[in-house]
Amino acid sequence: MALVYQPVMQLSGILVSLLGWVLSCLTTYLPQWKNLNLELNELEIWTMGLWQACVVQEEGGMQCKDFDSFLALPPELRISRILMFFSNGSGLLGLLLSGFGLDCLKIGEGQQEQKKRLLLFGGMLFWISGITAIVPVSWVAHSTVQEFWDENIPDVVPRWDFGEALFVGWLAGFCLILGGSLLNCTICSTEVHQSPVHYAVAEQQDQCQCLETETRP
Known about the structure:
InterPro entries: Claudin, Claudin_CS, PMP22/EMP/MP20/Claudin. One of its GO terms (molecular function) is structural molecule activity. The chain contains 4 helices and 5 strands. It is of the alpha+beta class. Helix 1 (2-29) runs antiparallel to helix 2 (75-100) and helix 2 runs antiparallel to helix 3.
């Protein structure tokens, strides 16, 4: 039964990882990493992302302005840009490697060891992609919490709050780590189920050799 469910687990792992990679790319370009709701003007909501700041008006209009300089950004946004690019790149490479390592793919059907290595490397890349997606999102969330409860800032000054992109990024990291874990579990299950078969075949060969020696005059 384990061999029957193995392709299903592989497909589930790569589909979950694909969902996480798409969400990670979406998180990178969403401008809603931080939201600023002005109490004096409730008709406007300011949002900030890795690339631009936007103003959302109640009428449905949205105006955005790109950041002029990379070096002028806060350190958490600068590092978040780099980490999110690394997460998207490693996730894409993981999809390519694990895709060629699937058992349902007819390419390289006789090279099972190479396909296992591709699945293993793909699963590890998904782990790396998930971690590098969670780290910048959590860092920005931590700095937002610190600024929100900073007693040195007067109460009349508006505070930044969590944006929707942070929750999308956490979900993306979780999906990538889960997908990589499913792929690596299929590799471990094949090794566990193949080892008893190997020992049984070896034992049967030993018994045949003993019978041959006994029947000889």
